[in-house]
Amino acid sequence: MEPYRYTLLWAAGTVLFIFVSSVALGAIARWIAQRRGYSRNRLEDVFAGYAFAAPWIVGFVLFVVAPVLTSLYWSLTIYRLPNPPVFVGLANYAKLLFRDPDFRAALLNTLYIAVFGVPAQLVVALALALLLNRRVRGEGLYRTAFYLPVFLGTNAAVLLSWVFMFNANTGFLNQILRLLARAFPPFQEALRLFIFIVESTNAAFLGIQTGNFTLLQRVWQAGLPSPERVPLWLENPLWLKAAIILLLVWSCGNMMLIYLAALNSVPREFYEAAQVDGAGPWQRFRHITLPLISPATFYNLVVGLIAVLQLFEQPYVLLRDRPTLAQSGYTVVYYLWRATFRFNEIGYGAAISWILTLLILVVTLIQFRLERRWVHYDL
Amino acid sequence: MEIAVRRWTILPALTSRKWIKRLASGAVYGVLTAGGLVTAFPLIWMILTSFKTFEEANAPRIVWFPSALRWENYYVILSRPEFLRAFANSIFVTTLAVGGTLASITVVAYAFSRVEWPGRDLVFILMLSTMMIPPQALIVPQYVFFHRLGWIGTYNPITIPGFFAGGAALVFLLRQFMRQIPRDLDEAARLDGASHWQIFWHIILPLCRPALATAAVFLFAAHWNSLLQPLIYLQTTRLYTLPIYVTSLVNPQQVVQPWPTIMAASFLTTLPLIATFLLLQRQLIGGIVLSGMK
């Protein structure tokens, strides 16, 4: 059957199903409330409440509770559709944690991106918000420009434009870097230092991944790269994560908006009082602004870390069919997709999903634990 | 007044301080404008490239502007039936999913904001806690579920689940908005004998239009950009949506890619997003601050 019509028929059926289950759920709730002796007016509220909330309740059972419970079982099996699952105990988890170099690469890559990428995002977002908070003319226009990448940033078409710009020889980015390096010698030195830092940190991480540190030794022995060197973005395992981090920083507009809202709510009198006491701009920033916007920093940090754990589109488009680079760009979700659906390993995929869920839970819990130490809510 | 003051300031200290101030504000604008250009640059470069020739786009030295306004790349991509089909597929999937999700989250938000029922707070907390579960973690078991329903290779898995109020964050956003609507309105209507459905349809829904617009834009972007789920479920070229089709234009076997054509396709893919964003950006940015900080 024609694919559109097929789905439209199912959609109509779904609407009918939701309607029937809503009325049914509402009626059951009303019946129970009636037996408990609720007044007439409240009975109507009970019916309406459950009937209106029913789409979510039914969807929650069908698409969240059932999958979560079954996937817990499947993660303990070898399951290749359409064959039935075979119970193997904790074998999947043992393999993932101890014998799967690709998964370890995915975890370490995610760690790298979280350690270097999220702070970079926070700093850039805060800097932009501070500039915008100076009551500049055309604030709305700038805000729009900075927010645009959040809206477009995961679209494959926009990411392709980045792939084009990242090309090491003819790409826009390196062309501009070459021009600038030739025109300003200090910039050239800064670029060399930047290349050296990126390559040595990446080589160190690669060393942890493989247990082989020869690459790091070579980077250190070579010292500062030659003046003609440019970043190798998508051509070299030492650069792929830097490219992904650049994409993340580019799309930090969401964090900037949160910071902007927080900065707006800091009372002006605080600054005036501090100025009277003789506090300079840095002291005012350090002792007034930073503590007062710490809830926003906390929120951005949690959301940013979770987003890094869920990265998929960026590595997919940047990595596409560059098998030599693959390991250096795997993220947890990218590897989940690859391991599960390329090779039809449902059981293994279920185990990865559980580890991902636990990771996000742990990250969030740690954040909330540490929150008390540096976040100030009293204003 | 301003001019008069400036003309008569002869104290050098004052003038220099003024100059520093002016210089500082100039620097602020400079940095901001540079930042804006950088963030918009991938789009600008995409558009410029889409008008270039193959040689201009892959030249060893930057060619900033195309030598002429060439529409050839757009002709090339628009004459490919696969591109047009992918475009139609994307429109179909996005419309259906956004429509279904929007209708259901509005209904559910009403239950959480305007009706008093036992168990409401418990269900609401349950819903908020689902935001902790990454959607990607549910993909594997959901795949099995859809496989059993015979839905693999159809649009059902990427459209139908939304009908069940998919997206707790948006329900939350709408609920926050509905709570701000004064209670007297529906209490008066209830005294007149109106049912909850009538109140929802005639009073609450019309007042929620700005929040609905915000939610619609978010949903539109999420479905239009969606890559992982279509990759998993669609599986045949005929069903591909735009993001999958566009990435397939890059041929890894070739050393040099036909970038002008790819960028023309990319621009056409992003155009609906850019247009919606520019039209509704005010509501959007308001919505983020509302849902993010409260």
Q: Which percent bin holds the helix content of chain B?
A: over 70%
Topology of chain B as a string of helices (H) and strands (E): HHHHHHHHHHHHHHH
Biggest sheet of chain A: strands side by side, in what order? 1-2
Structural class of chain A: mainly alpha
CATH architecture of the domain at 90-241 and 285-293 in chain B: Orthogonal Bundle
- Runs of chain B in which pLDDT lies below 50 for 5 or more consecutive residues are 1-11
Number of alpha- plus pi-helical segments of chain A: 18
The CATH architecture of the largest domain in chain A comes to Orthogonal Bundle
Oligomer: heterodimer
Number of domains of chain A: 2
Main sheet overview of chain A: 2 strands, antiparallel
Helices and strands in order:
The complex is a heterodimer of chains A (379) and B (294).
Chain A: H1 3-35, H2 40-74, E1 77-78, E2 86-87, H3 91-99, H4 101-132, H5 139-152, H6 156-166, H7 172-183, H8 185-210, H9 214-222, H10 240-250, H11 253-264, H12 268-276, H13 281-292, H14 294-309, H15 313-319, H16 326-329, H17 332-342, H18 346-374
Chain B: H1 2-8, H2 12-50, H3 54-57, H4 72-78, H5 81-114, H6 120-129, H7 139-148, H8 156-159, H9 168-179, H10 183-191, H11 196-207, H12 209-225, H13 228-233, H14 242-247, H15 259-293
